[in-house]
Design a protein that fits this description.
The protein is built from 4 helices and 8 strands. The chain is an alpha+beta fold and about 190 residues long. The strands form 2 sheets. It has a 4-stranded antiparallel sheet, with no helix packed on it. Strands 7-6-5-8 form a 4-stranded mixed sheet. The longest helix is centred in the middle third of the chain and has 32 residues. Keywords: Membrane, Transmembrane, Transmembrane helix. InterPro entries: PH_40. It holds the Pfam family PH_40.
Length: about 190
């Protein structure tokens, strides 16, 4: 299974490298397979390596106390690292599945589409911008962060890291009452 995963990754990244010569840098961001693969690589790798060992729980009656303690610790580590990232990914995916972000800082352009409908706002319409990031940079879910744009109309737009790296967008909005916050777990 690991060999298959490495082969698929090599093919995907090889095709991505080859096609990068023929494409321009995109200014339109949607939840794509490669972005999701980037965010889910370590949690899924942890699950794929550790879950076969957890099948030993089926032989619960034949395990010694020492084996049971080690197996429980392994299960806690695997699930403790992977499940929070999977929960965040599912929540972000459900929230930004139909969202499209058009971001071009050189032309002072920031547009958000829900489905095919443009949500109109200008920078003066932003009352407050919350940029929430993970407190620890070394956890599997540390790449998950989001921006909340509070508009004068009362509407709140949420842009998640499933669309793109949000640090340049937050930098672009730094003069719009930007509030940077850090949490251990960036639930919406």
């Amino acid at each position: 299974m690991l060999e298959f995963t490495v082969a698929v990754c090599a093919i995907v990244f090889g095709l991505r490298f080859i096609t990068s010569f023929f494409t321009q840098a995109s200014r339109v961001y949607r939840p794509t397979f490669l972005r999701q693969f980037y965010l889910l690589f370590w949690p899924l790798l942890c699950m794929s390596v550790g879950l076969p060992f957890l099948i030993s729980f089926l032989y619960l009656g034949t395990l010694s106390a020492y084996e049971l303690v080690l197996l429980t610790a392994l299960a806690a580590v695997i699930l403790g690292f992977s499940v929070p990232a999977l929960i965040l990914h599912a929540q972000y995916y459900a929230h930004n599945l139909r969202t499209t972000l058009v971001f071009d800082p050189k032309h002072n352009k920031l547009e958000v589409y829900e489905g095919r409908v443009l949500i109109p706002f200008a920078q003066r319409d932003l009352l407050r911008v919350e940029y929430v990031t993970c407190r620890s940079p070394r956890l599997f879910w540390s790449n998950y962060n989001f921006l909340r744009l509070h508009l004068a109309s009362g509407e709140v737009l949420v842009l998640t890291s499933l669309l793109t790296n949000l640090a340049p967008v937050a930098e672009f909005l730094r003069n719009s009452h930007l509030e940077a916050r850090q949490r251990w777990f960036c639930l919406l």
